[in-house]
Specification:
This protein has twelve helices and 23 strands. With 510 residues, it is of the alpha+beta class. Helix 10 runs parallel beside helix 12. The longest helix is centred in the N-terminal third of the chain and has 19 residues.
Length: 510
Protein backbone atom coordinates (compact mmCIF):
# COMPACT_ATOMS: atom_id res chain seq x y z
CA UNK A 1 0.00 0.00 0.00
CA UNK A 2 1.28 3.48 -0.89
CA UNK A 3 -0.17 6.50 0.93
CA UNK A 4 0.96 9.95 -0.21
CA UNK A 5 0.75 12.96 2.09
CA UNK A 6 1.05 10.92 5.29
CA UNK A 7 3.23 13.80 6.51
CA UNK A 8 2.77 17.41 5.41
CA UNK A 9 5.82 19.08 3.78
CA UNK A 10 6.57 21.17 6.88
CA UNK A 11 6.44 18.06 9.06
CA UNK A 12 8.72 16.21 6.65
CA UNK A 13 11.35 18.93 7.07
CA UNK A 14 11.07 18.90 10.86
CA UNK A 15 11.29 15.12 11.14
CA UNK A 16 14.21 15.00 8.73
CA UNK A 17 16.12 17.58 10.77
CA UNK A 18 15.64 15.44 13.86
CA UNK A 19 16.61 12.32 11.91
CA UNK A 20 19.84 13.98 10.81
CA UNK A 21 20.60 14.87 14.42
CA UNK A 22 19.83 11.34 15.61
CA UNK A 23 22.17 9.83 13.04
CA UNK A 24 24.89 12.34 13.86
CA UNK A 25 24.61 11.34 17.52
CA UNK A 26 25.06 7.61 16.96
CA UNK A 27 25.46 6.87 13.27
CA UNK A 28 26.75 3.50 12.10
CA UNK A 29 26.95 1.42 8.98
CA UNK A 30 23.72 -0.52 8.66
CA UNK A 31 23.65 -4.28 8.92
CA UNK A 32 22.23 -6.58 6.32
CA UNK A 33 18.72 -8.00 6.58
CA UNK A 34 17.74 -11.59 6.01
CA UNK A 35 17.44 -13.84 2.99
CA UNK A 36 19.65 -11.75 0.71
CA UNK A 37 20.79 -13.86 -2.26
CA UNK A 38 24.03 -11.97 -2.88
CA UNK A 39 27.19 -11.60 -0.84
CA UNK A 40 28.20 -8.64 1.34
CA UNK A 41 28.68 -5.74 1.00
CA UNK A 42 24.97 -5.36 0.32
CA UNK A 43 23.97 -1.97 1.66
CA UNK A 44 25.62 1.41 1.82
CA UNK A 45 23.41 3.43 4.13
CA UNK A 46 23.99 4.68 7.65
CA UNK A 47 21.31 3.63 10.12
CA UNK A 48 20.28 3.79 13.73
CA UNK A 49 17.58 1.96 15.68
CA UNK A 50 15.34 4.31 17.66
CA UNK A 51 13.16 4.39 20.75
CA UNK A 52 10.39 6.94 21.00
CA UNK A 53 11.03 7.80 24.66
CA UNK A 54 14.75 8.31 24.04
CA UNK A 55 14.10 10.62 21.08
CA UNK A 56 11.67 12.68 23.13
CA UNK A 57 14.17 12.90 25.99
CA UNK A 58 16.84 14.07 23.53
CA UNK A 59 14.62 16.95 22.44
CA UNK A 60 13.82 15.49 19.01
CA UNK A 61 10.08 16.00 19.38
CA UNK A 62 9.22 15.84 15.67
CA UNK A 63 10.96 12.48 15.29
CA UNK A 64 9.28 11.13 18.44
CA UNK A 65 5.91 12.25 17.07
CA UNK A 66 6.58 10.47 13.76
CA UNK A 67 7.33 7.26 15.65
CA UNK A 68 4.01 7.71 17.43
CA UNK A 69 2.26 7.98 14.07
CA UNK A 70 3.88 4.74 12.93
CA UNK A 71 2.65 3.04 16.11
CA UNK A 72 -0.83 4.25 15.17
CA UNK A 73 -0.34 2.53 11.80
CA UNK A 74 0.40 -0.69 13.67
CA UNK A 75 -2.86 -0.34 15.59
CA UNK A 76 -4.74 0.16 12.31
CA UNK A 77 -3.14 -3.01 10.93
CA UNK A 78 -4.26 -4.96 14.00
CA UNK A 79 -7.78 -3.52 13.74
CA UNK A 80 -7.85 -4.67 10.13
CA UNK A 81 -7.09 -8.25 11.09
CA UNK A 82 -3.30 -8.29 10.61
CA UNK A 83 -1.33 -10.32 13.17
CA UNK A 84 0.84 -7.33 14.08
CA UNK A 85 0.09 -6.89 17.77
CA UNK A 86 3.58 -7.63 19.07
CA UNK A 87 6.42 -5.19 19.64
CA UNK A 88 7.54 -2.65 17.03
CA UNK A 89 11.11 -1.66 16.21
CA UNK A 90 12.10 1.57 14.46
CA UNK A 91 15.09 2.53 12.33
CA UNK A 92 16.18 5.70 10.58
CA UNK A 93 18.47 5.31 7.57
CA UNK A 94 20.31 7.66 5.22
CA UNK A 95 21.73 6.82 1.80
CA UNK A 96 24.41 9.49 1.20
CA UNK A 97 23.76 10.01 -2.52
CA UNK A 98 26.99 8.47 -3.77
CA UNK A 99 25.43 5.47 -5.46
CA UNK A 100 24.73 3.67 -2.19
CA UNK A 101 22.08 0.98 -2.44
CA UNK A 102 20.62 -2.02 -0.60
CA UNK A 103 20.52 -5.21 -2.59
CA UNK A 104 17.59 -7.60 -2.74
CA UNK A 105 16.47 -9.03 0.61
CA UNK A 106 13.46 -9.60 2.85
CA UNK A 107 13.03 -7.92 6.24
CA UNK A 108 11.71 -11.09 7.89
CA UNK A 109 14.95 -12.95 8.56
CA UNK A 110 16.44 -15.61 10.88
CA UNK A 111 17.48 -12.86 13.31
CA UNK A 112 14.06 -11.14 13.10
CA UNK A 113 11.59 -13.94 12.24
CA UNK A 114 8.57 -12.26 13.82
CA UNK A 115 8.53 -9.20 11.56
CA UNK A 116 5.19 -9.30 9.79
CA UNK A 117 4.90 -5.86 8.19
CA UNK A 118 7.25 -3.14 6.97
CA UNK A 119 6.16 0.51 7.04
CA UNK A 120 8.54 2.99 5.36
CA UNK A 121 8.04 6.74 5.74
CA UNK A 122 10.16 8.88 3.41
CA UNK A 123 11.74 12.11 4.69
CA UNK A 124 12.92 13.74 1.47
CA UNK A 125 11.64 17.33 1.17
CA UNK A 126 11.02 18.92 -2.20
CA UNK A 127 10.55 17.20 -5.55
CA UNK A 128 12.31 13.89 -6.10
CA UNK A 129 13.37 13.14 -9.67
CA UNK A 130 13.72 9.37 -9.79
CA UNK A 131 15.53 9.43 -13.14
CA UNK A 132 18.11 11.87 -11.81
CA UNK A 133 18.25 11.01 -8.11
CA UNK A 134 17.53 7.26 -8.17
CA UNK A 135 16.92 5.65 -4.78
CA UNK A 136 13.62 4.00 -5.71
CA UNK A 137 12.25 1.10 -3.70
CA UNK A 138 11.84 -1.94 -5.96
CA UNK A 139 9.43 -4.59 -4.67
CA UNK A 140 9.24 -8.20 -5.88
CA UNK A 141 5.68 -9.01 -4.80
CA UNK A 142 5.26 -12.36 -6.56
CA UNK A 143 7.46 -14.72 -4.57
CA UNK A 144 5.86 -17.84 -6.04
CA UNK A 145 6.34 -16.76 -9.65
CA UNK A 146 8.13 -19.10 -12.03
CA UNK A 147 10.47 -16.17 -12.70
CA UNK A 148 11.27 -15.65 -9.01
CA UNK A 149 14.91 -14.68 -8.59
CA UNK A 150 15.37 -13.71 -12.23
CA UNK A 151 15.20 -10.00 -11.45
CA UNK A 152 13.76 -7.20 -13.52
CA UNK A 153 16.13 -7.97 -16.38
CA UNK A 154 14.90 -11.56 -16.47
CA UNK A 155 11.25 -10.58 -16.76
CA UNK A 156 10.29 -10.87 -13.08
CA UNK A 157 7.37 -8.58 -12.20
CA UNK A 158 8.34 -5.67 -9.92
CA UNK A 159 6.87 -2.49 -8.47
CA UNK A 160 8.92 0.73 -8.33
CA UNK A 161 8.20 3.31 -5.62
CA UNK A 162 10.10 6.65 -5.69
CA UNK A 163 11.00 7.91 -2.17
CA UNK A 164 8.82 11.02 -2.27
CA UNK A 165 8.80 12.99 0.98
CA UNK A 166 5.76 12.31 3.19
CA UNK A 167 4.98 9.05 1.37
CA UNK A 168 4.19 5.96 3.48
CA UNK A 169 4.71 2.49 1.99
CA UNK A 170 3.43 -0.62 3.79
CA UNK A 171 4.12 -4.19 2.68
CA UNK A 172 4.48 -7.73 4.00
CA UNK A 173 7.95 -8.20 5.55
CA UNK A 174 8.34 -11.46 3.64
CA UNK A 175 8.30 -9.62 0.31
CA UNK A 176 11.75 -9.28 -1.20
CA UNK A 177 12.80 -5.77 -2.16
CA UNK A 178 15.81 -3.59 -2.85
CA UNK A 179 16.82 0.07 -2.78
CA UNK A 180 18.25 1.23 -6.09
CA UNK A 181 21.39 3.41 -6.07
CA UNK A 182 20.77 6.89 -4.64
CA UNK A 183 22.85 9.05 -6.94
CA UNK A 184 22.71 12.77 -6.14
CA UNK A 185 20.57 13.56 -3.10
CA UNK A 186 20.74 12.24 0.46
CA UNK A 187 17.86 9.81 0.84
CA UNK A 188 16.23 9.54 4.28
CA UNK A 189 13.65 6.99 5.42
CA UNK A 190 12.06 6.04 8.72
CA UNK A 191 11.04 2.37 8.99
CA UNK A 192 8.80 0.53 11.46
CA UNK A 193 8.60 -3.25 11.80
CA UNK A 194 5.56 -4.49 13.75
CA UNK A 195 5.84 -8.10 14.87
CA UNK A 196 3.45 -10.96 15.35
CA UNK A 197 1.88 -11.15 18.79
CA UNK A 198 2.23 -14.95 18.81
CA UNK A 199 5.94 -15.01 18.01
CA UNK A 200 8.88 -14.30 20.35
CA UNK A 201 9.19 -10.97 18.60
CA UNK A 202 12.13 -8.97 17.38
CA UNK A 203 13.71 -8.70 20.79
CA UNK A 204 16.23 -6.13 19.62
CA UNK A 205 15.55 -2.40 19.79
CA UNK A 206 11.79 -2.88 20.18
CA UNK A 207 9.33 -0.36 21.56
CA UNK A 208 7.88 -2.67 24.21
CA UNK A 209 11.10 -4.43 25.09
CA UNK A 210 11.73 -3.20 28.60
CA UNK A 211 9.61 -4.65 31.44
CA UNK A 212 8.40 -2.00 33.84
CA UNK A 213 9.74 -3.85 36.87
CA UNK A 214 11.63 -6.91 37.95
CA UNK A 215 8.46 -8.98 38.02
CA UNK A 216 8.02 -11.94 35.67
CA UNK A 217 6.93 -11.22 32.12
CA UNK A 218 4.45 -13.71 30.69
CA UNK A 219 5.63 -12.67 27.23
CA UNK A 220 8.89 -14.56 27.74
CA UNK A 221 7.36 -17.72 29.14
CA UNK A 222 6.56 -20.82 27.09
CA UNK A 223 2.95 -21.09 25.90
CA UNK A 224 0.67 -22.96 28.24
CA UNK A 225 0.17 -25.78 25.75
CA UNK A 226 3.93 -26.20 25.13
CA UNK A 227 4.90 -29.84 25.03
CA UNK A 228 7.82 -32.04 24.12
CA UNK A 229 7.60 -33.15 20.49
CA UNK A 230 11.22 -34.30 19.97
CA UNK A 231 12.04 -36.29 23.12
CA UNK A 232 15.54 -37.36 22.01
CA UNK A 233 16.75 -33.89 21.05
CA UNK A 234 18.75 -31.53 23.25
CA UNK A 235 18.02 -27.80 23.36
CA UNK A 236 21.09 -25.79 24.37
CA UNK A 237 20.50 -22.31 25.81
CA UNK A 238 23.37 -19.83 25.34
CA UNK A 239 23.39 -16.20 26.52
CA UNK A 240 26.28 -14.32 24.88
CA UNK A 241 27.27 -10.77 25.83
CA UNK A 242 29.75 -9.46 23.22
CA UNK A 243 31.63 -12.73 23.64
CA UNK A 244 34.16 -13.72 20.97
CA UNK A 245 34.26 -17.24 22.42
CA UNK A 246 30.56 -17.86 21.71
CA UNK A 247 31.18 -18.75 18.05
CA UNK A 248 33.71 -21.38 19.14
CA UNK A 249 31.48 -22.61 21.96
CA UNK A 250 28.72 -23.48 19.50
CA UNK A 251 31.12 -25.09 17.03
CA UNK A 252 32.84 -27.21 19.70
CA UNK A 253 29.49 -28.21 21.18
CA UNK A 254 28.43 -29.68 17.84
CA UNK A 255 31.80 -31.17 16.92
CA UNK A 256 32.16 -33.03 20.21
CA UNK A 257 28.63 -34.46 20.33
CA UNK A 258 28.19 -38.19 19.75
CA UNK A 259 25.06 -37.37 17.78
CA UNK A 260 25.23 -33.72 16.68
CA UNK A 261 22.04 -34.10 14.65
CA UNK A 262 20.00 -34.23 17.86
CA UNK A 263 21.40 -30.92 19.19
CA UNK A 264 19.59 -27.60 18.74
CA UNK A 265 21.09 -24.32 19.93
CA UNK A 266 19.23 -21.19 20.99
CA UNK A 267 21.64 -18.26 21.34
CA UNK A 268 20.96 -14.68 22.39
CA UNK A 269 23.56 -12.34 20.90
CA UNK A 270 23.88 -9.10 22.90
CA UNK A 271 26.21 -7.29 20.54
CA UNK A 272 27.30 -4.23 18.65
CA UNK A 273 26.27 -5.17 15.12
CA UNK A 274 29.22 -3.28 13.64
CA UNK A 275 32.11 -3.76 16.06
CA UNK A 276 31.20 -7.38 16.85
CA UNK A 277 30.15 -8.43 13.34
CA UNK A 278 33.15 -10.74 12.87
CA UNK A 279 32.10 -13.16 15.59
CA UNK A 280 28.29 -13.18 15.35
CA UNK A 281 28.39 -16.57 13.67
CA UNK A 282 29.33 -20.22 14.10
CA UNK A 283 33.08 -20.77 13.89
CA UNK A 284 34.54 -23.42 11.63
CA UNK A 285 34.72 -24.22 7.96
CA UNK A 286 32.13 -23.11 5.43
CA UNK A 287 30.98 -26.72 5.13
CA UNK A 288 30.48 -27.00 8.89
CA UNK A 289 28.58 -23.73 9.08
CA UNK A 290 26.30 -24.77 6.24
CA UNK A 291 25.66 -28.14 7.88
CA UNK A 292 24.84 -26.66 11.28
CA UNK A 293 22.96 -23.51 10.24
CA UNK A 294 19.53 -25.13 10.53
CA UNK A 295 20.32 -26.30 14.07
CA UNK A 296 21.02 -22.85 15.47
CA UNK A 297 18.29 -20.33 16.33
CA UNK A 298 19.13 -16.84 17.45
CA UNK A 299 17.92 -13.58 18.89
CA UNK A 300 20.02 -10.45 18.39
CA UNK A 301 19.78 -7.38 20.57
CA UNK A 302 21.94 -4.30 20.91
CA UNK A 303 24.32 -4.63 23.86
CA UNK A 304 23.10 -1.31 25.25
CA UNK A 305 19.68 -2.90 25.76
CA UNK A 306 21.10 -5.83 27.72
CA UNK A 307 19.74 -6.18 31.25
CA UNK A 308 21.62 -9.13 32.69
CA UNK A 309 21.73 -12.92 32.42
CA UNK A 310 18.16 -13.57 33.56
CA UNK A 311 16.64 -11.58 30.70
CA UNK A 312 19.01 -13.17 28.18
CA UNK A 313 18.26 -16.70 29.37
CA UNK A 314 14.52 -15.96 29.33
CA UNK A 315 14.85 -14.87 25.70
CA UNK A 316 16.85 -17.99 24.87
CA UNK A 317 14.03 -20.15 26.22
CA UNK A 318 11.63 -18.60 23.71
CA UNK A 319 13.69 -20.37 21.00
CA UNK A 320 12.86 -23.83 22.38
CA UNK A 321 10.90 -25.94 19.88
CA UNK A 322 9.84 -29.14 21.62
CA UNK A 323 13.22 -30.73 22.42
CA UNK A 324 13.15 -33.29 25.23
CA UNK A 325 16.35 -32.28 27.04
CA UNK A 326 17.48 -28.84 28.19
CA UNK A 327 21.13 -27.81 28.58
CA UNK A 328 22.01 -24.33 29.81
CA UNK A 329 25.61 -23.15 29.45
CA UNK A 330 27.65 -19.97 29.35
CA UNK A 331 28.94 -18.59 26.06
CA UNK A 332 32.59 -19.40 26.86
CA UNK A 333 32.55 -23.19 27.18
CA UNK A 334 34.24 -26.27 25.73
CA UNK A 335 33.15 -29.90 25.72
CA UNK A 336 34.47 -33.38 26.24
CA UNK A 337 34.04 -36.07 23.61
CA UNK A 338 30.47 -37.40 23.41
CA UNK A 339 29.25 -35.01 26.09
CA UNK A 340 25.65 -35.49 24.96
CA UNK A 341 25.55 -39.24 25.55
CA UNK A 342 27.33 -38.83 28.89
CA UNK A 343 24.87 -36.23 30.20
CA UNK A 344 21.82 -38.21 29.09
CA UNK A 345 23.14 -41.35 30.77
CA UNK A 346 24.01 -39.55 33.99
CA UNK A 347 20.63 -37.84 34.06
CA UNK A 348 18.94 -41.25 33.96
CA UNK A 349 21.08 -42.30 36.94
CA UNK A 350 20.23 -39.09 38.77
CA UNK A 351 16.50 -39.56 38.15
CA UNK A 352 16.74 -43.09 39.52
CA UNK A 353 18.33 -41.68 42.68
CA UNK A 354 15.76 -38.87 43.03
CA UNK A 355 12.81 -39.48 45.33
CA UNK A 356 10.46 -37.87 42.81
CA UNK A 357 12.44 -38.89 39.69
CA UNK A 358 12.92 -35.15 39.03
CA UNK A 359 16.62 -34.42 38.70
CA UNK A 360 18.93 -31.69 37.43
CA UNK A 361 22.65 -32.12 36.76
CA UNK A 362 24.54 -28.96 37.67
CA UNK A 363 27.92 -27.67 38.84
CA UNK A 364 30.62 -25.10 38.10
CA UNK A 365 32.64 -26.62 35.23
CA UNK A 366 36.45 -26.72 35.46
CA UNK A 367 38.54 -24.18 33.55
CA UNK A 368 39.98 -24.63 30.06
CA UNK A 369 43.10 -23.02 28.64
CA UNK A 370 43.44 -20.81 25.59
CA UNK A 371 40.82 -19.17 23.41
CA UNK A 372 39.27 -19.58 19.99
CA UNK A 373 40.67 -22.30 17.78
CA UNK A 374 43.68 -22.64 20.10
CA UNK A 375 41.63 -23.53 23.19
CA UNK A 376 42.59 -26.80 24.87
CA UNK A 377 40.03 -29.13 26.43
CA UNK A 378 41.59 -30.56 29.61
CA UNK A 379 42.30 -34.28 29.84
CA UNK A 380 41.59 -34.11 33.57
CA UNK A 381 37.87 -34.89 33.81
CA UNK A 382 37.53 -35.11 37.59
CA UNK A 383 34.19 -33.61 38.68
CA UNK A 384 33.49 -30.51 40.75
CA UNK A 385 31.01 -30.11 43.59
CA UNK A 386 29.42 -26.81 44.57
CA UNK A 387 30.09 -25.43 48.05
CA UNK A 388 29.04 -22.26 49.86
CA UNK A 389 31.74 -19.58 49.97
CA UNK A 390 30.04 -16.93 52.15
CA UNK A 391 27.51 -14.15 51.80
CA UNK A 392 28.07 -10.91 49.90
CA UNK A 393 27.10 -7.44 51.08
CA UNK A 394 23.92 -7.80 49.03
CA UNK A 395 22.84 -10.72 51.20
CA UNK A 396 23.18 -13.35 48.47
CA UNK A 397 25.20 -16.51 48.93
CA UNK A 398 28.36 -16.92 46.87
CA UNK A 399 29.38 -20.36 45.62
CA UNK A 400 32.62 -22.04 44.59
CA UNK A 401 33.35 -25.33 42.87
CA UNK A 402 35.63 -27.84 44.59
CA UNK A 403 37.51 -30.40 42.50
CA UNK A 404 37.18 -33.99 43.66
CA UNK A 405 40.16 -36.32 43.94
CA UNK A 406 38.77 -38.76 41.37
CA UNK A 407 35.81 -39.49 39.15
CA UNK A 408 32.69 -40.56 41.02
CA UNK A 409 30.81 -43.78 40.24
CA UNK A 410 27.46 -41.96 39.97
CA UNK A 411 25.99 -38.44 40.13
CA UNK A 412 26.61 -36.75 43.48
CA UNK A 413 23.88 -35.08 45.55
CA UNK A 414 24.41 -31.31 45.55
CA UNK A 415 23.11 -28.58 47.84
CA UNK A 416 23.43 -25.94 45.15
CA UNK A 417 22.73 -25.19 41.48
CA UNK A 418 24.81 -23.35 38.85
CA UNK A 419 23.49 -21.32 35.91
CA UNK A 420 26.55 -22.03 33.74
CA UNK A 421 25.91 -25.78 33.54
CA UNK A 422 22.44 -27.19 34.03
CA UNK A 423 21.14 -30.32 32.30
CA UNK A 424 17.65 -31.71 32.75
CA UNK A 425 14.54 -32.69 30.92
CA UNK A 426 12.65 -29.83 29.30
CA UNK A 427 9.89 -30.20 31.88
CA UNK A 428 12.09 -28.24 34.28
CA UNK A 429 11.94 -24.97 32.36
CA UNK A 430 8.38 -25.58 31.14
CA UNK A 431 7.37 -25.76 34.80
CA UNK A 432 9.80 -23.09 36.03
CA UNK A 433 10.64 -20.78 33.10
CA UNK A 434 13.26 -18.13 33.63
CA UNK A 435 11.91 -14.87 34.96
CA UNK A 436 13.54 -11.90 33.15
CA UNK A 437 14.76 -10.24 36.35
CA UNK A 438 16.57 -7.17 35.08
CA UNK A 439 20.09 -6.37 36.27
CA UNK A 440 20.18 -9.34 38.63
CA UNK A 441 23.52 -11.16 38.69
CA UNK A 442 24.24 -12.51 42.16
CA UNK A 443 20.96 -14.02 43.28
CA UNK A 444 20.13 -15.72 39.98
CA UNK A 445 21.31 -19.14 41.14
CA UNK A 446 19.75 -18.94 44.62
CA UNK A 447 16.45 -17.89 43.10
CA UNK A 448 16.36 -20.71 40.58
CA UNK A 449 17.46 -23.26 43.18
CA UNK A 450 14.70 -22.20 45.58
CA UNK A 451 12.08 -22.57 42.87
CA UNK A 452 13.39 -26.03 41.95
CA UNK A 453 13.54 -27.15 45.58
CA UNK A 454 10.00 -26.00 46.29
CA UNK A 455 8.78 -27.92 43.23
CA UNK A 456 10.50 -31.15 44.24
CA UNK A 457 13.51 -31.13 41.90
CA UNK A 458 16.79 -32.65 43.12
CA UNK A 459 20.16 -31.24 42.03
CA UNK A 460 23.09 -33.61 41.50
CA UNK A 461 26.61 -32.99 40.23
CA UNK A 462 27.85 -34.96 37.21
CA UNK A 463 30.28 -37.75 38.22
CA UNK A 464 32.87 -36.50 35.70
CA UNK A 465 33.50 -33.31 33.73
CA UNK A 466 32.38 -33.08 30.10
CA UNK A 467 31.80 -29.31 30.07
CA UNK A 468 34.57 -26.77 30.71
CA UNK A 469 34.38 -23.02 31.31
CA UNK A 470 36.66 -20.01 30.70
CA UNK A 471 36.81 -18.41 34.13
CA UNK A 472 39.23 -15.59 33.33
CA UNK A 473 37.53 -12.36 32.29
CA UNK A 474 40.73 -10.83 30.95
CA UNK A 475 40.13 -9.16 27.60
CA UNK A 476 36.42 -9.98 27.67
CA UNK A 477 33.50 -7.57 27.54
CA UNK A 478 31.38 -7.80 30.68
CA UNK A 479 27.82 -6.68 31.18
CA UNK A 480 28.51 -5.35 34.68
CA UNK A 481 31.34 -3.09 33.50
CA UNK A 482 29.80 -1.71 30.31
CA UNK A 483 26.02 -1.39 30.68
CA UNK A 484 24.68 1.36 32.97
CA UNK A 485 22.77 -0.32 35.77
CA UNK A 486 19.14 0.67 36.28
CA UNK A 487 19.16 0.97 40.07
CA UNK A 488 15.38 0.82 40.43
CA UNK A 489 15.04 -2.27 38.22
CA UNK A 490 17.93 -3.95 40.02
CA UNK A 491 16.38 -3.23 43.41
CA UNK A 492 13.02 -4.56 42.23
CA UNK A 493 14.64 -7.78 40.99
CA UNK A 494 16.52 -8.27 44.26
CA UNK A 495 13.37 -7.64 46.27
CA UNK A 496 11.52 -10.20 44.17
CA UNK A 497 14.21 -12.80 44.88
CA UNK A 498 14.41 -12.04 48.59
CA UNK A 499 10.63 -12.27 48.88
CA UNK A 500 10.70 -15.77 47.38
CA UNK A 501 13.61 -16.90 49.55
CA UNK A 502 11.73 -15.71 52.61
CA UNK A 503 8.62 -17.72 51.88
CA UNK A 504 10.05 -21.01 50.53
CA UNK A 505 8.53 -24.06 52.21
CA UNK A 506 9.42 -27.73 52.30
CA UNK A 507 8.63 -29.33 48.93
CA UNK A 508 5.40 -31.21 48.52
CA UNK A 509 5.55 -34.98 48.51
CA UNK A 510 5.65 -36.72 45.14
Amino acid sequence: MVLDGFLAPADVQAVRADAEAALAAVGRAARVGGRAPTQAPQRGDTARFLRRDEEAAAGRAALAAALGLLLAVQRRLVAGGCDAGGSTSFQVACYPGNGACYERHADASPSAPARCATAVLYLNPGPWDARRDGGELRLYPFGESALHGMGCEGGEATTLVPPVGGRLVIFDSRIEHEVLPARLCRRYALTAWPTSIEAPGELEFCETQRPSSGAPSARNQPPRDARVTHPQRIFVSVAAYRDEEAQWTVAHLLRQAARPERVRVGIVWQVDETEDAAFIRIAGSAAERAKWASQVREVRMDWRQAAGPCLARALAQTLWAGEGFYLQIDAHSRFGRHWDSALIGWLADAEAASVCSRAVLSTYPPDYEGTGAAALTPEDDRPTLLCGAGFGEDGFLRLRGRRLAARAPAPLPSLFWAAGLSFSRAELFLELPYEPLRFLFFGEESFQLARMWAAGWDVLAPPASVVFHKWSRAGRHTFQAEVPQDADAKAASRSHVMALLGRCTWPATC
